[in-house]
Write a structure and sequence with these properties.
By secondary structure, the chain is of the alpha/beta class. Helices cover about 30% and strands about 25% of the residues.
Length: about 270
């Protein structure tokens, strides 16, 4: 990383800046860090763009907010840069100091915690013994909860098709940091299943499945498939499974996909 300007080389009226490894900070004539105070600053404008899915996909980057999420990002190694309104922050380099006004502008929550991180989207070719395959999950809260449950019950690889963006801010808040601990792939589920016949695949089907309680022998390598909140798993995917399952319930017609997914993963863990 480049060193900051030597204050001895600055004239009394000068304000200096430097670029390090993605770091952009302003220094005054004494060599002290100055806050970024304008929302027209290029770094701030680029950060705001990350609120749009298109820009996140183009850059392979996303943002998280709050002390816990930022700490999880740093530990995972996926954190690229931190923006904070705390001028004494020393938890990560590069860090950019911004004013409270700018923090409110770039934050996507009503009560900002004063710290935001830009992170790399997790991608991997690592496949764990238990895989969660998601077909058309559209609700951010459900996606976030499923990611947390998957991590808790050992389904550490998640494969998605036609699902809500996992870097959606509501998804990220729902994961509570689990997003940084999973292996994630986005691909066509039928293609994935055909390419990995070593797994036993269980679909979910209220009408053509067997009760979950009847499944007593659990294979070591499992792919559990959950479907869209309204439509369920597509029929052409269900035809590729080893068995299809349903959870016996009474008094209601069906369970929320995030709740059902948690029950299924717990049983299969």
């Amino acid at each position: 990383m480049d060193r900051k300007p030597n204050k001895k080389n600055l004239k009394s009226s000068e304000v200096a800046y430097y670029f390090g490894a993605s770091l952009f900070l302003w220094y005054n004539k004494n060599g002290d860090i100055m806050e970024i105070t304008s929302v027209t600053n290029e770094k701030i404008k680029n950060l705001i763009k990350l609120s749009y899915k298109k820009y996140r996909q183009e850059t392979k980057m996303f943002i998280v907010e709050g002390k816990h999420m930022v700490e999880e990002a740093i530990v995972s190694g996926l954190c690229n840069e931190v923006f904070t309104s705390d001028s004494h922050y020393t938890g990560f380099e590069p860090a950019v100091i911004v004013t409270d006004k700018i923090m409110k502008k770039i934050s996507q929550v009503d009560s900002p915690q004063g710290i935001i991180a830009i992170c790399q989207i997790p991608k991997t070719t690592v496949l764990n013994k238990k895989i969660l395959l998601l077909d058309g999950i559209s609700d951010p809260g459900n996606m976030g909860t499923l990611i947390r449950s998957a991590l808790a019950f050992g389904f550490e690889t998640i494969v998605t098709e036609d699902c809500v963006d996992i870097t959606n801010p509501k998804v990220l808040r729902s994961t509570q940091g689990a997003i940084f601990k999973i292996n994630y792939l986005e691909t066509r589920l039928k293609t994935f299943i055909d390419a990995h016949p070593e797994y036993t695949y269980y679909g979910t089907d209220l009408h053509g499945g067997i009760p979950l309680a009847e499944l007593t022998i659990i294979p070591k390598q499992i792919g559990l498939i959950l479907g869209n909140e309204a439509q369920g798993v597509r029929q052409d995917i269900l035809t590729k499974t080893t068995k299809n399952l349903f959870i016996e319930i009474k008094g209601i017609e069906s369970l929320n996909v995030a709740i059902a997914g948690g029950i299924l993963m717990y049983h299969l863990k």
